[in-house]
Amino acid sequence: MMSSIYLPHELVQIIIDELHSDKAALRSCSLVCHSWAACAQRSLFSYICLAPSLFGLSPNPGPSLLTRFHNITSTAPHLLRYVRVLEFDPTNDAVQYLFSDSASLEELRMVNFVGDMSKAEDVITAVLSLPSVTRLTVREGPCYPAQIVPFLRHCPQLQSLTMSRIMIDGLADAHSTDKAIQLRTLAASRLTPEILADLAENVVDATQLRSFTAQFHPFFYDQRRIERSVPIVQNILKAIEGTLENLSLDICLSQPLPQLIDFSRLRSWDLYIPTPKLTADKPYATAEATLQWLLSSLESLEASSLEYVTIQKLPITEPCVQLASRVDRILSKLGNMRQVFVMLCDSPKAAASAKDLFPLLHKRNLLTQYNKTPSLVDRVMEASE
Questions:
Q1: pLDDT per position as a tens digit, 255-291
Q2: What's phi and psi for 276, nearest 5 deg?
Q3: Cα distance between residue 204 and residue 148, in whole Å
Q4: Which residues face 161 on adjacent strands?
Q5: How many angstroms separate the first and last alpha carbons of the chain?
Q6: What is the pTM of this model?
Q7: Which of 77, 123, 204, 382 has its CA 20 to 30 A from that of 222?
Q8: What pLDDT is recorded for position 224?
Q9: With b meaning 16 or more CB within 10 Å and e meaning fewer, what string describes 334-371?
Q10: pLDDT of 20
């Protein structure tokens, strides 16, 4: 008869954590024994999504998702200790079932909502008031100043704010927070420039930002809106007091980046090359201007800790190829550089590969070409190989 082998709880947890993306395997592990159940539940319940539209469901099943989650945690309240990220629709009829007594919740995501959030105000305020909640995401829905500003007032411990694809106006006309929230991470995607300006002026203290993302997706905007976004982004960058480590933009600014920030601290720079076809005779004028701005920023470097650079949607045109060659020479000489990620613009004429445009980086084994936007995990894993 084979004797059983005892594995320390910490070792079982490490093994089961390797299955974090395999829900079926985690559910099977939870049925093995009591000690395995606790380890598997820790991964199974670390991220809870209660937004039915994310699963392609109609709004009707929404209350049942919240109700089912409430019923489970009512009979097994210890599961609440494992929830790190909670994603939900704040206009859901069963939003009162959200819990506000967890000491482990770290991130709240209000997503895919339509309608008024006022009925959920007390519940959301209670959750955001938890000391452990340091990250807030609001995306894909209408959001009004009378709603978002009071929420922010109740979470002075907030360190990260992400806002994407929301319709929000007039923050300057709303009651401002008593004290601006000092963030470490601010990410704004597919917002109008005016929204970002209102956030920076009335709600957020950007002086200690470590990570800043401003993705306006200028392909959908006219030239005037693109131009309005430039001084807004520059003012935010100038306000940062030498702490910025990660930057992601999809516009070119009017000044080289080292003139706006302490470039010696920057470790990661993501640049999405905008390619709006503004005129028939110069369809890639904006892309070429963005590459020229990147080049002028790199040429004015005096000291750099830059380790990762991502260039997305690089068009294959003669001017862009020439500029890319000059960028290749500069980046290949940076001593701290660990990886450069390049995604070429989709085009039947784009027969060249990234290694043809950046041969020196390719020779140093610092070049990776992607057909899709690389995630942070992709970049770290690639650089560690």
A1: 999 999 988 889 999 998 876 554 444 556 678 888 8
A2: -70, 135
A3: 12
A4: 136, 186
A5: 43
A6: 0.84
A7: 204
A8: 73
A9: beebbbbbbbbbeeeeeeeebeebbeebbeeebbbbbe
A10: 80
Residue-wise pLDDT tens digits, 207-235: 999 999 998 875 455 667 777 888 999 99
Question: Mean pLDDT over residues 90-99, rounded?
Answer: 70
Coil, helix or strand for 22? coil
Residue 352 and residue 126: Cα distance in Å, rounded? 54
CA-to-CA distance for 182 and 285, rounded, in angstroms? 37
- The mean per-residue pLDDT over the stretch 14-42 comes to 85
- Residue pointed to by tokens 């539209």: 53
Neighbours of 150 (CB within 10 A): 16
Q: How open is the CA angle 211-214-219, to the nearest 5 degrees?
A: 150
Paired strand residues for 136: 108, 161
Output the pLDDT for position 67: 77
Q: What is the mean pLDDT of residues 365-378?
A: 67
**298 token code pair:** 């790199």
Contact at 8 Å (CB) between 250 and 227? no
Beta strands in the chain (DSSP E): 47-50, 85-88, 107-111, 135-142, 160-167, 181-182, 185-189, 204-205, 211-215, 246-249, 268-272, 308-314, 339-344, 367-369
